[in-house]
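[job 4471] stage=fold_predict status=RUNNING
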Amino acid sequence: MKDELVLVVPSQEHKDEIMKFKNEFIQNGERIINGSAGLDIEDNFENWLKDIKEDETREYSEPKRARFPGKVFLAYRKSDNRLVGIVQLREKLDDYLLKKGHIGDSVRPTERNKGYSTQMIGLAIEEAKKLGIGNVLMVCHNGNFPSARTIIKNGGVFEDEIIRDGDTYQRYWITLKKRYADGRNKPNDILEKEFKNFRVDNDEFQGNISLLTIKKVREEWRVDEEQRCILAKNYNWLEIYPDGEHFCISAVLDEKDNIVEWYIDIARMLGEEEGVPYEDDLYLDVVIVPDGRIHLLDEDELEDAYNRKEVSKKEFDMAYETANRIMEKARKKENIKKLTEFTHKYLEILKEIEF
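[job 4471] inference complete, writing structure tokens
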């Protein structure tokens, strides 16, 4: 079993270990320690410690000083409490960091080729979730195949190659907003469930349609002023994933199969893993209530992600174009009637299918 790592925030008590860590790079002929937030260029430990503390509340990047808003963590091996690596999580992207990424890391020379970088990045991703980062950018030299494999193992999807300081680098995005049709993203709320997925390919529809039947919940979910219930025992969520689109539809049905609402997630992309559809969420949501009400949600989250450069201008515009197109169609009663008929039709089909 691979030795487990834990991330620790640097403090004065770690001074001796950190300096031994740094000296190992120097003795190995390496003058750059990626992800060290300037440890490789700062001779005074106390000054470095002061800088990384200030970085936690920093508003703007100072690339020349290797200072960026975010946090630095030490990666310790639990079995013997040895400092294995260091990782920097940069909280806010800017034009400079779009060529550097959210995460930088280094493993000490004597501990390499043991899978620790993969673990460190995975742990840093968990910390990114706590900071509200929805899409993590990672960058590596195009000739650094081990680094690329490590990024891909953590869910990195290649986007493009860029030129930085005369060299070619690859950029990968790791989404933290992936939502699965089987409800795995809500383990604290959905305690028991049944799941079915059905591939449809006919003149009416092409894509995946899933049925998530809620058997037991920790507590009910209620929304809007009338406290409309959208999650409860014996509720069904019919999940509709159309091919070639940037949205998926969750039709919420109560215990009597009455449609409560259609919740439409705007997505960067739709996909499927081991027979379970998912969407890479792009923040905006449209809610359609059968009585004709239409709500556009989470515009502030999309705006924040765009300002943090986790969402491109193209994706930002696409999200609104998709949401506006859906709302325009929903304003026509005949389209709501068709959607209602479609929902009930495939609810019955999925109910009858045995898996």
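[job 4471] summary: The radius of gyration is 24 Å.
[job 4471] exit 0
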